[in-house]
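Give me structure tokens for this 542-residue protein.
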Amino acid sequence: MFINRIIQFVKFAFMNRYTFSRVTTNLFSDISNELVYGQEKLADLLKTPFSIEAFQQQTIDKKEQYSSEQRSLLVQSIKEQYSNVKLNEPTEKNIDLLSNENTFTVTTGHQLSLFTGPLFFIYKILNTIKLAKELSIKYPDYNYIPVFWMATEDHDFEEVQSVKLFNEDLKWDTEQQGAVGRFDAEELKNLVNKFKELFSNHPESEVISVINQYNGESYSEATFNLVYALFKQYGLIIIDGDHQDLKRSFAPIFEKELKEEFSFKAVSNTNEILEKKGLKRQLNAREINLFYLSNGARTRIIREGDKFFIEGVGEYSLEELLHKTSIEPESFSPNVVLRPLYQESILPNICYTGGGGEIAYWLQLKEVFNEAEVPFPLINVRNSLQVIDGNSLKKLSKLDLNLIDIFKDINDLKKDFVLKNTKSDIDFTSIDNIQDKLASELKGKIIGINPGLEQYAESENAKLNKQLSNIKQKLIKIEKEKYDNSLRQIEQLLEKLFPGGKPQERVINFFSLCSDGNVYSHLEEIYEAIDPFEKDFIVITQ
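Here you go.
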């Protein structure tokens, strides 16, 4: 049963914070809502439903499975990845804490989105940071560290190559191909300059200082530097999984996949459970869920009989390909089925945080983890938020609209607005009552004369209903024309809050909230509003 509460209100120092049932907003899919409000119903697809109480046993289970050798390798590789960074105290402290056997991680991850991409990129990281903090308070015998896993090996560049900042569309056009993290970042410089032009009124501001960190030899390095600049005060640990030593530790899984096609079989078994529950598949497993990285390409490994074929690279026997996993593990890349397993085998991780759609595909992976003997993590749907600026709030007030109204269908909202504000009597309640009575009496009269005319009676009543409906719509349309200006304002307001009819968090960029040139105060505002154990949709008004 979903939560019935529609709205709650809390006042913070920076803003007002409201929560609405996610179901009420009509912004989320059924499976997303189920993952938030009803994980218990999905228990056979999870290790344990998400709750703060579940973390104690999850931590114990991970501690028993995660070896000191794994921990040592992780800390060493993290220190290598931070070798060119001047560490601040919170980050250095958390890296050192990872050597402690009582330290565990909570993790989120994402593709390398341009200038951090849509707002939810920021939300999922802050959600993870807040979760780590609350767990450290709840369970003081353990340390919990927030981690951001950069999906540097993803090759779907089209998904991340553009971003909307204010009313400008910034796009990185490049001929580079393959794993996005390996792209040469030299081409970013022109885009960074265009970005800074949008903040020319604040040349010495935080936003310019932060965006100047968006550089490096590779796109992976540039993204690493930008994310570090944004979140270093929270001690966030950033990890690039495209690392030779980390891949080498995962080589036994590469071998198992090539020998047994175990992940395909595991997902196929889980899909049967999904179908019985009436749930749709979020991902389709392949027989071999690995790519091969080489020369600006990320290419599928395909089995053909007793041979393995990699387009543009060559054909191999099983023995030859297994040999390659041992001498060049960095050339192998897990796809969407195996990437979560790779992440969880590398980290002392106990929970993964992501969006509803992203988390949904984890429902197909529990058996994959079981086959690899790696604990399946708790999965947490991140908070979703809507930021309403002061001007938009004033417009809502001027139009005499409530916050709940912004989630209505625009046509319904316009109709309700006209009915609420019109001075003409266009309430059709009494007419509807008369119409219902007339229809009933007319049908009874016709059938009383000839019972065989029932279908005719219903047809004629339908015609009368349609005529009356046309009259209603005509009168409402005439009345609406009196409110053209207000209705245009409603359209403009909803377009601003839901660009292109989409949730704000999936369209606009975080830096759009930083028009004053400040960055960290706006991050803190969102951080304060986030509650990783909040199930409802959050609206903050400035």
